[in-house]
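Summary for the lay section of the report: proteins are chains of building blocks that fold into shapes. Here we show the chain for Fumarylpyruvate hydrolase and then a coded description of the shape we predicted for it.
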Amino acid sequence: MSYVIDPPAVASLPVEGESGRFPVRRIYCIGRNYAEHAREMGHDPNREPPFFFLKPSDAVLDAARDFPYPPGTKDVHHEIELVVALKTGGRDIAEADALDHVYGYAVGLDMTRRDLQAEAKKMGRPWDVAKGFDHSAPCTALKTVAAIGHPSKGRVWLDVNGQTKQEGDLADLIWTIPEVIATISRLFELKAGDLIMTGTPAGVGAVKTGDVMEGGVEGVGTLRIKVA
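The coded shape description reads as follows.
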């Protein structure tokens, strides 16, 4: 097949222990999936069904690189999350079968232009400029299911300049990973290469140029990334 312009490069992530890289198709994100984070954002976690937003695939950023402070904002927030990478997909996936579609896991950051998100919420507008900007999804190398299994509990944390800002546990997820996969598959056709960011614990906050973010998910990995 020929194209009238050069096609863009495929967004991808490294895989621990592999020379090949994982191609990224879409990045699905679930909002407010930890009760304490839902409360800090002013919502009742017991009354909300799950909801989702997307980031473009090329928003992914190898966590070994610096995170460039984005334009158009004065309030960029960190959100540490477990990331799920799919090897296969489908529609209407049953919860009991959901984990069969998982290739591996990583640690990611859902970086958010919070001031632009607040403005969008107030005006009833989409969140795209707040969530889907360039480099808004820093992510570590993937670890395969064969290497680490399927994590369902374990500490999730983020420090900024050595001070703990976010802390939770995968066991505290409101919607479990199988439930999230099954729910998204009823709204979209999931495919190999899709990433799912599974939500962030309480303690989100702003970062500034020069800050160093260090965090991780127990049993999955850690990241260290500087705001450039």
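Put simply, here is one thing we learned. Residues 114-123 form the longest helix (10 residues).
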